[in-house]
Amino acid sequence: MKQLLIATHNPAKKEELRRGFAPLLKSGISLILLDDLNINQEPEETGETFSENAKLKALYFSKISGLPTVADDGGITIDALNGEPGVHSKRWIGRDATDVELTNYTLKKLHGFPDEKRTCHLTLCLHFFNPLHNMHIQVTKSVDGHVAHHSSGLARPGFPYRALFIVDRFNKFYDELSSEEHALVNHRLLAVRELAPLIASDLLQ
Questions:
Q1: Buried b vs exposed e over 141-157: b needs ≥16 C-beta within 10 Å?
Q2: In this structure, what CATH number is given to the domain that contains residue 69?
């Protein structure tokens, strides 16, 4: 059976990616998690872009596992802060910062900024690497919005910025979207839907 390693330790991302790639199971491709292989280490994310970090992680975990691997990198870019936190979204104030600390820090940084100066973007880059024939495929998706003046109070663990992110398309907090609305704008799932058939084509050739 063909195997695809989903390379993330983040429980929330892991669940979204596993759910998104589930259709590959019907093609005879099994989904492997880092937990299944007892892989606990993380690479040093030295890339300057989401694209560079996603590729770096895919190569890193593929080398350890020997498997075709998909990895992601993403975060929030805030226009008024010159694109911060960007690639540092997870570790903006330290790798051990909690979701609440990250949202509070974001609100502090934007204190006093009017709505028109709070524009931002959630971006996700997925990178697939197959070591069998050095195949690289990358997909990037983003959703536009603005930072609210307070948290939605509905945050999902592992996705701190969604609790502050108002989706322009629906003028709702990301966490308030219906399942139908969520399916239309979730940048991670949109990237997965585009990448999944390309991965299947590569693995099953």
A1: bbbebbbbeebbeebee
A2: 3.90.950.10
pLDDT in tens, 103-144: 999 999 999 999 999 999 999 999 999 999 999 999 999 999
Residue-wise pLDDT for 45-87, tens only, equals: 999 999 999 999 999 999 999 999 999 999 999 999 999 999 9
Cα 158 from Cα 155, distance rounded (Å): 9
The pTM of the whole model exceeds 0.85:
yes
- Which of 35, 36, 72, 73 is an active site residue? 73
Q: For residue 10, which of 26, 32, 34, 43 has the smallest C-alpha distance?
A: 34
Chain mean pLDDT for the chain: 94
Domains in the chain, number: 1
Beta strands in 11-134 (DSSP E): 29-33, 69-78, 119-130
Radius of gyration of the chain (CA): 17
Residues in the chain: 205
Q: What percentage of the chain exceeds 70 in pLDDT?
A: 100
- Domain span including residue 20: 2-203
Per DSSP, the three-state class of 144 is: strand
The residues pairing with 141 across neighbouring beta strands, listed in sequence order, are 124
73 annotated active-site? yes
CA atoms within 13 A on the CB side of 46: 4
